[in-house]
Amino acid sequence: MSITEQKPIISKLEQQELRRLLADDKRIDGRSPLQYRSINVQLGYVEKAEGSALVALGNTKVLAAVKVGVAVPFADTPNEGILIVNAELVPLASPVFEPGPPSEESISLSRYVDRSIRESKTIDLSSLCIVPGRSVYSLYVDLYILDYDGNLIDASVIASVNALGITNMPKYVVEGQAIKKTDEYFKLELKDHPVSITYAFLDDKYVVDPCLNEEYASDFTVSMTIKSDDRFCAIQKNGGGMIPPRKVIELLDKSIALGKELRTVAYGQLTGGNG
Amino acid sequence: MGENIVLFKEDGKRSDDRALDELRPIRIKVGVLSNAQGSAYIEQGRNKIIAAVYGPKEALPKHISLPDRCILRCRYHMAPFSTSERKNPAPSRREIELSMVLRNALEPLVMTSLFPRTVIDIFIEVLQADGGTRCAGLTAAVLALADAGIPLKGLAAACAVGKAGGRIIVDLNDLEDKYGEADMPVAYNPTLDGITLLQMDGIMSKEEVEQALSLAITATQKMHKMQVDALRERFSVQRREV
User: Fold this and answer.
1) pLDDT value at position A12?
2) Where are the beta strands (DSSP E) in chain B?
3) pLDDT at residue A8 above 80?
4) Given this model, what pLDDT does residue A275 score?
5) Mean pLDDT computed over A210-216
6) Is this complex scored with an ipTM above 0.85?
7) How many helices (H) and strands (E) does chain A have?
8) Are B39 and B147 contacting, i.e. CB atoms less than 8 angstroms apart?
9) For testing the chain A interface, which of B75, B92, B95, B104 should be mutated: the one with the most A CBs within 10 Å?
């Protein structure tokens, strides 16, 4: 059962201050409403993973690592590789993360990242078939939230795509009924570079890339994932509150512009700065 | 697999003979369970869904309660026999996410500050699934809340819109959901002009999202009328009983 979350109490004073500043289009950390925090991407952070990236979005830190394996395909997609995204809200990252089975927040996060990658067709899963109906590649993208200062969704999408972008796939050969791993590797090809843009709404104002206090003080957030061709592949409103339809349309426009900027910064190392 | 699927017939109608912006047949009944404070049943196409509300009641254990308002607990669940392949009755990741999304969609409608330290339980049980269950479930859950006499800021109805076979369509059925290009569930409250549930997956351009959104608003306004009628029917029956 999903229970009304108990947001940590942030002082009335700080809530008021956030809103007072926002009335003048200012934010508590000096950013403008549509400005992202600084982004730092460290590729190949975990050597034992076939692909990995540590992403810092301000003080939010997300480590994404890809493990590659071989599995039996799902019955309804016998010719497609398997992509599974899992998110761990590691207890050391925040007092609100608790050990135990995955929380609904972590499930919702991993499912959103999964949709962002899958629906944008960033990975051509049909190219990851080894023996149709019997053996396909499996890609496990594990997200580790190491430090939590808001906006896990955008940081997680950036980390996952970067990790997939440098993933080295071991080559397999078919020998009779069996398949054998070789010493050769090939690069996993990215067909797209999706970015998610998250907005937090405080009354009728909104900010992009909310830090933790903005997230806690907000009524709800809206995330939109945009492909390189400016089309949308995932949208989700999180948290209570109501959004007027005209605001949604306003966000679509903003997201396209912000997506272009963010893509260049987030995937600069993968694409050689060409976005 | 996907090649043999016919999403549109030669006459331009959809696989179930609907026009692009046409809802499936909807039947709603409010007050269908004897033990729940409020309940509602909806059929939308081949979807069959019951929603029940218990509460407001004391929130136990006490630490889950909030001093200034009631909390909501929501469970969206699919019966094992609701789909072609048997569904494991244990809650899947999808059901856990949807329970949260639905709670978030219902919470802004409830006047929660009237019932501090209490809890309202909302159960949505999908008996038969045919695409768009979260939306039909929400439409029913709102009515179950109203049936329970819980003060609401307004009703909300939900409908999925999306894209299939290159066209923007309303109220996707199972086939269109599986083989279409995009699916966007929307819950809308016409009195406050507010969207309380918004998700999208699949690929749509900005123009397509805009078009789908406006179709969703029209569709949910139609459903809103059906909700009001269903409530009216429920309470006129009660008057006759007295």
Assistant:
1) 79
2) 26-30, 38-44, 47-58, 71-78, 118-128, 157-164, 167-170, 182-189, 194-204
3) no
4) 43
5) 94
6) yes
7) 6, 13
8) yes
9) B104
Listed residue (B67, B16, B56, B51) closest to B136, CA to CA: B51
Question: Does the beta-carbon distance from B184 to A235 stay under 8 Å?
Answer: yes
B108·A240 Cβ contact <8 A: yes
What range does the domain containing B132 cover? Answer: 26-235
- B→A contacts (Cβ < 8 Å), by residue, are 1, 64, 66, 71-75, 93-94, 96-97, 99-104, 107-108, 121, 184, 188-189, 192-206, 209-210, 213-214, 217
Q: Which residues of A touch B84 (CB under 8 A)?
A: none
Structure token pair of residue A97: 């993360």
Classify each residue of A197-207 as buried b or exposed e, where b means 16 or more C-beta atoms within 10 Å of its C-beta.
bbbbbbeeebb
Tokens 């997609």 sit on residue: A77
Size of interface A-B (CB pairs under 8 A): 119
Nearest Cβ partner for A2 among B103, B184, B203: B103
What pLDDT does residue A177 have?
A: 85
Which residues in A lie closer than 8 A to residue B199 (C-beta atoms)? 235-237
CATH number of the domain that residue A89 is part of: 3.30.230.70
Q: What is the CATH number of the domain that holds B117?
A: 3.30.230.70
Does A153 contact B at CB distance below 8 Å? no
Nearest CA in chain B to A239: B104
Q: Is A268 inside a domain boundary?
A: yes
Radius of gyration of chain A measured on its C-alpha atoms: 20
What is the pLDDT, as a whole number, of residue A117?
98
Range of the domain at A95: 12-274
Q: Within a domain: residue A208?
A: yes
Residue A269: is its pLDDT beyond 50? Answer: yes
Instruction: State residue B1's pLDDT score.
Output: 44
User: Which pLDDT tens digit goes with each residue over A235-264?
Assistant: 999 999 999 999 999 999 999 999 999 999
Instruction: Quote the CA–CA distance of A236 and B199 in Å, as a whole number.
Output: 4
- Average pLDDT score over chain A: 95
B3 within domain boundaries: no
- On whether residue B198 sits in a domain, the answer given is yes
pLDDT of residue B239: 61
Residue whose tokens read 């053996």:
A135
How many domains is chain B partitioned into structurally?
1
Q: Would A7 be classed as within a structural domain?
A: no
Q: How far is B79 from chain A (nearest CA, A)?
A: 15
Q: State the nearest Cα–Cα gap between A197 and chain B, in angstroms.
A: 14
Number of domains in chain A: 1
Which DSSP string corresponds to A153-190? Answer: HHHHHHHHHHHHHTPEEEEEEEETTEEEEEEEEEEPPP
| pLDDT score at B199 | 98
Tell me which residues of chain B have a pLDDT lower than 70.
1-3, 237-242
Chain A residue with the nearest C-alpha to that of B107: A240
Task: Encode pLDDT of A40-74 as tens digits.
Answer: 999 999 999 999 999 999 999 999 999 999 999 99
Residue B143 inside a domain? The answer is yes
B173 part of a folded domain: yes
